[in-house]
Amino acid sequence: MKPLQMVFLALLIGVSFMLLAEKQETAMLALMGMVVGLLLLFSIVWRVMTLAQSAMAEEIRQRTVTWWWMVAVFMLALSTHRVVSFVFLGLLCFSALREYFGLLPREQSQGGAALSFKDRPAVLVGYLSIPLVILLAFAKWMELFLIFVPVYVFLLVPIVFVLQNRTQGSIKSMGLIMVGLMFFVYNLGHCLCMINMGPLVLMFCFTLTEVRDLLSFWVGKLFARASARLDSGALKNVLDRRVADRVSPNKTWSAGIVVAVLMAAISLVFVPLMPPFPEGRLSYGFCACIGLAIGVLGLFGDLVFSMIKRDVGTKDSGHLLPGHGGIIDRVDSLVFTIPVTFHLIYWRYF
Predict the structure, then answer these.
(1) pLDDT, mean of residues 230-257
(2) Mean of per-residue pLDDT scores for the chain
(3) Which residues fall within 8 angstroms of residue 121, CB to CB, at 6 or more apart?
(4) Hey, where are the domains in the chain?
(5) 294 phi and psi, to 5 degrees?
(6) What's the pTM value of the predicted model, to 2 decimals?
(7) Residue 202 contacts by C-beta under 8 Å, 6 or more apart in sequence?
(8) How far apart are CA 109 and CA 17, in angstroms?
(9) Which residues have C-beta within 8 Å of that of residue 198, sequence separation ≥ 6?
(10) Poorest-confidence range of 9-23, 51-65, 126-140, 151-165?
(11) Is 126:119 a contact under the CB 8 Å cutoff?
(12) CB 242, CB 249: distance < 8 Å
């Protein structure tokens, strides 16, 4: 990272800490301090790996640098005005949806997923639904937010198709469009409602989900090395049992289960930091259940989007984030963990 970039990055993070200190958001300060500390640790790790000429040094460097920028922007968005947080998260939903539509081929291949020129009006409906979702969440119209996409937008898309006087390929196109809207406008859009619970709730889910992805990578590597040292036997079979080998040959049940249990334990660190809710404070037992759910759902979120990318024939959803891929590569697990975390907390404490 160039010196000027480092200065700008430090300025962004410093402003975020100053704004939080001014608001006396001590819990957010503590949480963001832990995140920055973790990034500092990984910065040291990749420098050591570079000196040791490790084959993974460049990948870790790219991932770490990109993480610094993502965390800095995210921290600034959450530490400033509530409007800024909603605009930032709305842009995140828009970027993910746009990337999803960009992944789909434009010409219909036999049995493949594709969109055509005629689908543009329905795609436009999807984009226009995002500012309305932001408005509903900002106004705290929870009941309407929950049904807007799965009911009203879901009904509007086929109406658009009918007004186009279409028949051939309509079911496939409607399915492709609505899958994108449900994933990136509705599910990911629940992060907007989390802001209403408190920015800490959003940070709780974001941090645990991303830590899960990080642990999944390293635990998977560790288990793969352990398995390679074994010739045969029950332990090797357990370590090598794949969740879905055609979707992702490296994802195993053993690593997934261990990471989920670790997430249940790590989640307990957040309990003292979480804000009080109308029905009391987050308990350690319930928090562990949420951590476990994030561990499991994060795994399947990763696998579902691996399945989608294999179907459309690409490895990464984009190249916007060096070392990570595209926006979808970074939010795939969040699409699954955010809505479930929100509804678990909402059901128990609101």
Answers:
(1) 89
(2) 89
(3) 160, 164
(4) 1-80, 82-197, 198-350
(5) -65, -40
(6) 0.89
(7) 78, 191, 194, 195
(8) 51
(9) 275
(10) 51-65
(11) no
(12) yes
